[in-house]
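User: I've been going back and forth on whether these two constructs are worth ordering. Before I decide, could you fold them both?

Assistant: Sure. I'll take them in the order you sent them. The first construct and its structure tokens:
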Amino acid sequence: MFQSLLTLGAGNPAEHVYNHVHLGAKTSEGWWVWSGNQGNLVLSMVILIVVGAWAAKKIGTGPESEGSGRYITKNKFAHMIEVICVYLREEVARPLLLDRTDKIMPFLWTLFFFILVNNLLGLVPLLDLVHLLSSDAKANHATLVVGGTATQNIWVTGVLAVIAAFFFNGVAIKRLGVGGYFSHMTAGAPFPASILIFFLELASQIIIKPFALALRLFANMTAGHILLATLFSFAATIVTQPLYIGGPVTLISVVGGFGIMLLELFVAFMQAFVFMFLVTVFIALMDHHEHDHSHDHTHDHAHGHGHAHGHEHAHA
């Protein structure tokens, strides 16, 4: 039993975090049919569908026979989900998206909860638990159909970023029109400078912003999870070293790992929020000039109207 604890002391802590092949070639250069990250993605989809449908039923308005109680959410966990959704819509998105908030929120909610669930699943050491319970599984390098951290995979975060880029560019084109979309990128600069600004803005919209989204999520989830795996890897010291050495090291490892685990829970929520918030900002940035212009026009019109009104009173 104690020997099975050595799985926590893998030579490479990243093995606890990276994607594991379940069906196919078991090498980094090979191909695979199914991997742990793919399983996590499917599992997260199932969780979102099941929990989302259940929460919607608990949050939804009940029959009129319940009176005022029909507006009360029927479950504390569903109420927490409702609070998160309302906060993201009213306090984060609406100040930026204004009249488009209700139409765009379903996509933003989906991004947030999909990333959040995958971040949290990455904190569950499914493969390590199997190795702890079965020495044969560890010896044969057995893998599960789920495992690892999907949002640590640059291909997963890259696809999420590409989907987000298609969305915020598509929304901008729908809002401004094709001509308005491209003219917006010149920022009203004169001709010589407008060309350079246009290509910089175009590169930002289709390359830089998606790359930043993908890399930010990938780097944060990789660093935090590897740090957690590294700390817990020292827990096996109590088995391999004398008690006076292994005891304190193991204690520090467990206490420190617990603290990092709490931090990782916070990071899981924070990174889901940051990804959603940045997409919201990118959508708003392709619209703010239009609002500023309208605001200035309205202000000038009101000022002119007041000035003319004052002249009329003076003549009277």
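The second construct, handled the same way:
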Amino acid sequence: MECVESVNKIAEDNWKKFTDDDFKPLQGHIMKYPIKVNANGKVSSLPGFESFPDVGGKVLGSRSTLPNALTT
């Protein structure tokens, strides 16, 4: 559990550095994905981050008519 908490802390710190106006170098390549999952399993984007700050694509994507086998 200590390892999981340490990795999650690094990922959270890197996300904050990445989205800060005053960019600071990241520790490694791990970064928190900008979503939150509530107790019922509902997934949503982090407040203020409906799109990725660097490329602008939607965090949650959008519905597609493609078969699941092609998109998972």
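Notes on the second construct follow. The two ends are 29 Å apart (CA to CA). Strands lie at 35-37, 43-45.
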